[in-house]
Amino acid sequence: MKKKFTRPESLKNVPFRYCPGCGHSIAHRLIAEVIDELKIREITIGIAPVGCAVFAYDYFDIDMLEIPHGRPPAAATGMKRVCPDKVIFAYQGDGDLAAIGTAEIIHAANRGENITIFFINNANYGMTGGQMAPTTLIGQRTTTTPSGRKSELAGYPIHVSELLAVLEGSAFIARGSLDSYKNIVITKKYIEKAFKYQLEGKGFSLVEMLSPCPTDWGMTPEEALKWLRESMMKEFKLGVIKDKWNNA
To answer: What is the C-alpha separation between 96 and 128, in angstroms, rounded?
Structure first.
């Protein structure tokens, strides 16, 4: 009998501790599958920050490094420059990358650093109790915006991918979603392209992934998927936002 499904070698054989319905476990598997398929496991180094994304070092069976909030792009920059033969990726959440890490991600992209960033957007601070994040939608209720985010008080959701796409140094910027089989397959293709661009020395790549967070959204997993499709996808449009080397 031919085996059709198995755990990627780049994932440890341990159970995930993420909340039911969370998208992090799907993102982990997609990244691990691509690492295996590209046969780059022995040369890949992952970087995790603080927050829910920090658990990545418990699950990826590759060399991993933990870095303080927001700083993975800076650490990835140094590591790639010292070890240009390695494949370096950072795995970050929206509270981490789009708030305290704004300077690091913008300048890494602007310099065209030959690194890969995976950006999980669940529109809140997941680990610390569901507070408002830079990506929180207008009207979205969080523990710090119990009556909904108001633009006159907290500004507007930051569209990180669109922001980075206008920088000359960015090579590949795409936004996928972890809500359905179709979108998961597309997102995996984005992940593969981002890694290939690094292998080909084409510069900075970022793949944003819209991810459900049922626990902090106060929803069931099914309700969270519905809200992601009906609300988040309207604000954060899916697709390739920039492909510097293939604009056709």
So the answer is: 12
> From CA 181, how far away is CA 216, in angstroms rounded?
23
pLDDT value at residue 248 = 43
Nearest-angstrom CA–CA distance, 126 and 92: 12
- 208 contacts: CB under 8 Å, gap ≥ 6: 119, 121, 160, 161, 173, 174, 175, 176, 236
Largest CA distance in the chain: 61
Kind of pairing between the strands at 170-177 and 239-243: antiparallel
The answer to whether the beta carbons of residues 30 and 187 sit under 8 Å apart is yes
- Tallying the residues shown for the chain, one arrives at 248
Backbone dihedral region of 236: left (phi > 0), alpha (psi from -120 to 50 degrees) or beta? beta
> What are the per-10-residue average pLDDT scores of the chain (248 residues)?
85 93 96 98 95 90 94 97 97 93 97 98 91 96 95 96 98 98 98 98 98 96 97 98 84
* Residue (of 168, 247, 236, 177) closest to 212 by Cα position: 177
How far apart CA 234 and CA 223 sit, in angstroms, is: 16
The two three-digit tokens of residue 11, written as one number: 């994932």
- Tokens encoding 76: 């990835």
